[in-house]
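Archive entry. Fields below.
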Amino acid sequence: MKPLNELTLIEARTALDAGEATSVAITDACLAAIRERDGALHAFLDVWETEAKKEAEAADIRRAAGKKLGVLDGIPLAIKDNLLVDGRKVTAASKVLEGYVATGDATVIAKLKAQGAVFLGRTNMDEFAMGGSTENSAYGPTHHPKDPERVPGGSSGGSAAAVAAHLCIAAIGSDTGGSIRQPAAFCGIVGLKPTYGRVSRSGLIAMASSLDQVGPMTKTAEDAAVLLEAIQGHDVLDQTTAKAESFAASSVANSDGSLKGLRIGLPKQAWDVPGLSSSVRERVSAAVETYRSLGAEIIDVELPYVDEALAVYYILMPCDVSANMSRFDGMRFGPRAAAGNLLETYLMTRGMYLGWEVRRRILLGTYALSKGYYDAYYRKAKKVQRLIQQAYATAFMQVDVLLTPTTPGTAFKIGEKINDPLAMYLEDVLTVGVNVAGLPAVSVPCGEDSAGLPIGMQLIGKAFDEATILRTAAAFAHAP
Amino acid sequence: MAITHEDVAALAHLARVGLEKEETERAERELENILGYVDRLQKIDTTGVEEAAPEPVAAHAFRVDEVTACSDKVRAEIIQNFPASQSGFLKAPAVFERPKS
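PREDICTED_STRUCTURE:
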């Protein structure tokens, strides 16, 4: 058997069920890997070693007594630092929440606890999930597992690096404009953004509430399916969660690996985006050929508004941000700057403890929502959002899945884009449309560039049809 | 759309975001860049297009609007998270500098 920390979630579960490994042994293997590698990677902001060992021991005792909790009992996971775990520190990688201790569990965490999952620690991210490189963390960047001079992507860069470097069995991230899929592509793992409304965001520190979604970051598509099944569902604490038909992980299994009858659409516009590298084009095109050989029908489709989706995103997102960030004012939690009066206290606290990217997005949102500009920006963006939703709906009348590269290029160097916000934003050009349309999408590893850096392809599905994109993703991984 | 120094200062004040002098200049530059990019939306004809809207929520889907109990433990944790407290209450700077007598 391979080292225990390198197991996939399903392999770990099978080993636990067969009595070939204990949760303590798997958890210890992950903790040892963290000790060995995380000094250099900085994927974790906190490692909950004592608590994780206790949780693993309890899982082993339950199992021995025939009282296994669920399919995740004893499985060690890493959690992005924007999800609340009762009694643990959580900062969203911001100084404005330094020292804050969660007073309850996020719904996703409560669901994972009910299944018996073990929590290894909280992972690094761009501050409040704003960024695509994890360089915006107030606690220092995470490094790419294959090249320490490069970024792991972001904002869920810590979770992606932790999975890729086998510091955990799987991880949880969040995705507002690509924050699960882009780091998954950069690090060579699977990252799923579920349909808007599939997973509760109660206890997720909000970035842009009309776009945010929590999802799995895993070593395989089957693992993502297991985690999605565990965390999904309607929640009275999140009004946007849908009463949709439940997702079943078993729906991803494909006995003979054939994709006969599946229609995969290639949006022509996705191959014309600025900066699409030749290696990405080559590897993703090769993946398309693999799908053809598996029996899928490949269809060229129109998907207008690719550039406009990015523009819509960079209006709607900061508008949501400017509202959501108003609670971080030094009054009820986090540090408070010492100032002469209330106004100065607000200005200094937010000036000192919110990072530059966060403050710029607040300013941008405040501008777009202000009197005289609301119609030109927010209202216009909401109308174009409707057109984008319709464009996806039209494409899905012809096909079952849309396939694009996840990112135009592979992992870039630390510092390369940090001073050029527009260049950083253009990283999201292929992922944001999915958030704007509210659809599910998964990034799947499909090869490497000449420097050995991973490349990801994105499979986009119809609303609440995660089963089809995950089955399609799994078929690629198992293709001969 | 041109963003002036005064625009940024006014926005920062409205949003209660403190900016250093060089940050105001940086914001001016970067906001203008981003607004230049998003301006492409103005070229799209949206005549007769409805704004995107979430699914309507039925009134009975809301939770009952009632006070729910909070355990002493959670209450203590919440107070522990306050930047300043006094006798178990949140302490905040005065809203009015000179209260009327």
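CURATOR_NOTE: The two ends of chain A are 23 Å apart (CA to CA).
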